[in-house]
Amino acid sequence: MTRRTHGEGTVYRDRASHRAQARIDGVRIGASGLTPQEARKNLKAKIQEHKTQLARASAALTAADYLRRWVTDLKDTQAVRPRTYRRYESIITIHLEPLIGHVPLAGLTRADVTGLFRSLHGRLSTTSQHHVHAVLHTALEQAVVEGLVEHNVARLVKAPPMRHRDKVILDSAKARRLISAARGEPLGAAVFLGIATGMREGEILGLRRCDVLLERNQLRIERTGNVDYDGCPALGEPKTDSSRRTVDLSFAAVEVLSEHLAAMPGTEPTRLLFPSPTGAVLPGPDFLKRYFRPITRKAGLPDMPFHDLRHSAGTILKERGVDEVTISRILGHASPAITAKFYGHVTPPLLAGAMAKMEEALGDPATGTQTGTQPAA
Fold it and tell me: Please, what is the angle between helix 251-263 and helix 188-197, to 10°?
């Protein structure tokens, strides 16, 4: 077998003839000939024919056709999680198809992408515009791999700078107000778990009776409340391997869960702790609107995503001197680096505590003694 330089493929003897093969745009193309030279010549013709057919197909393929095929492939191969697929599909349907879907894929230009974001300006938040850009960029990267386009024009256009939403971080006093407001409310125990353990919304909505280990003061996180690829509420896998964990419970959490379990109908081990009225997985938006938001308003707190309770829990632990490795284990982060990113910020209590420690170290400048001690007689 004779190997040629890059792009010429491989030539090998096949019985009485020679065969040349090459992989073009992910497709294996082959041709035969009586001699190696003839096999290469025939292969070159086959490659040219392949490129011509690809060019014709690309010319007839619109951006909408390709984006729809691309996102369907993600679903069929389960290359992304159901929630991610639903977000991609929604972005394509609502934003990309109406604005650039009519453009031939091979003819998509930087001007088309610039016009897309000009149309989205003022209609979407900068975060949502970033999501649109990310979906288009990822889809066009695959189009380049498949040889449908030569360049990813999304690379030439930057999404607008993101303006992050200010999180609502509850201090200990506000957290106690929330807990007080949640007591006695439908699914108030779910809200208590959110602030007391920092569990994700989906982790709480996916809890079953068999996941509650009251005799050990623990919860097991093995499933999450999610949606399937068709958008129907369903139990899914945890976000990461680190998300699959055991959560230690405080005595207060054990008491709250004991009361909730006692009030639940049925004793089946797989019964959900916080189901929808039909007993199925409760969708996150329904939980937010029907259960969580009334409790925050009752507590006199601003409207917030449920996920802000997770940030509040991590911040409270940080202010109490808990190290980032331990916080990472409690919250189920993939690594302590993620914990440091979100909870490495400095809060007023931490600043005040740091200054108090500095004062203690330097002492009283008037007496030269350590703060809190009496000067020597």
Answer: 160
